[in-house]
Amino acid sequence: MISFGVRNLKVFFKDKSSVFFSLLAVFIIIGLYALFLGDVWTSSMSSVPGVRYLMDSWIMAGILAVTSVTTTMGAYGIMVQDKEKKITKDFAASPVGSRNITGGYIIGAVIIGIIMSIITLVLAELYILSGGGKLLDLPSLLKTLGLIVICTMCNSSLILFMVSFFKSNNGFATASTIIGTVIGFLTGIYLPIGQLPESVQWVVRCFPVSHGAVLFRQVMMESALSESFKSAPTAAINEFKNMMGVTLSFGGDKPVAPLTSIIILLATAAVFYTLALINLSRKQK
User: Fold this and answer.
1) What is the domain extent for residue 68?
2) From CA 51, how far away is CA 70, in angstroms rounded?
3) Measured over all CA atoms, what is the biggest interatomic distance in the chain, rounded to whole angstroms?
4) Separation between Cα atoms, residue 59 and residue 38, nearest integer Å
């Protein structure tokens, strides 16, 4: 299983175009923020102290939530390629069991997602620092690394379930394009969650990746929020958090606790890994 996972790692990183396109959605978001969205938000909140640091932390936290989706999707593209090229039949004829093969795909995707997310985190911190912000302190950095692992496991399970239905690169490429386009809205990056219609907000609240984005924002924006809203009343802070997706609530004023969001992510991983494995086992019979 481990050796097969290593094989998938080598195949992924050897294909430079695969690595690039797995990060394409991230590049698009950074480009939109640097050229357009960043100026819009900073100018609309110019009276807020340290608004650049605040909004840079906000967008980078959202990008971290997206990275593990798009990169694991690129990693699972190897599975689709193996199916399309009938390489899976060679694997089936080998003494390696089907569970070990599937486990190798999962291990490869999770490791790829974690590696690419850590690289994104380093670049995000450098971007924040270049704009006059501060680097994460050690406790916040450790929390962020832990969230990267949890979110990657959750997002990997969702993508694996989706990939289990595809046998050709054409269908997978179409699905990848759609997800890469929609993911920015579902995580509240292109438009803050508070500005979306109420019906769409409920979809966002039920989307597991959104909970990952919320957790990243709560950690990465903690210092910036304390500086920008040092003298602001609690009501103003809570209003900003709700609008920008720093907190989520399913009705009422009480936001979802971080532990609840973590449980949602872990439960999602368990459920969708199980569903994906059942679907893959059914198709192999």
Assistant:
1) 2-284
2) 29
3) 68
4) 9
pLDDT at 190: 79
Alpha-carbon distance of 63 to 181, in angstroms, equals 13
Alpha-carbon span 54 to 51, nearest angstrom: 5
Q: What is the pLDDT of residue 222?
A: 93
Over the range 139-151, which residues count as b (16 or more CB within 10 Å of their CB) and which as e? ebeebbeebbebb
The answer to whether 164 touches 280, Cβ cutoff 8 Å, is yes
pLDDT value, residue 93: 58
For residues 203 and 207, give the distance between their C-alpha atoms in angstroms, rounded to a whole number.
6
pLDDT of res. 267: 96
Task: Count the Cβ atoms, other than its own, within 10 Å of residue 261.
Answer: 23
Are 226 and 48 in contact, with CB atoms under 8 Å apart? no
Q: Which two tokens stand for residue 140?
A: 């916040």
Please count the structural domains in the chain.
1
Neighbour tally for 227: CB within 10 Å: 15
∠ Cα 127 31 29 (to 5°): 90
DSSP string computed for the chain: -HHHHHHHHHHHHH-HHHHHHHTHHHHHHHHHIIIIIHHHHHHHTTTSTTHHHHHHHHHHHHHHHHHHHHHHHHHHHHHHHHHHTTHHHHHHHSSS-HHHHHHHHHHHHHHHHHHHHHHHHHHHHHHHHHTT--PPPHHHHHHHHHHHHHHHHHHHHHHHHHHTT--SHHHHHHHHHHHHHHHHHHTTSSS-GGGS-HHHHHHHHH-HHHHHHHHHHHHHTHHHHHHHTTTS-HHHHHHHHHHHTSS--SSSSPPPPHHHHHHHHHHHHHHHHHHHHHHHHHHH-
- Could you say which residues of the chain have pLDDT below 50? none
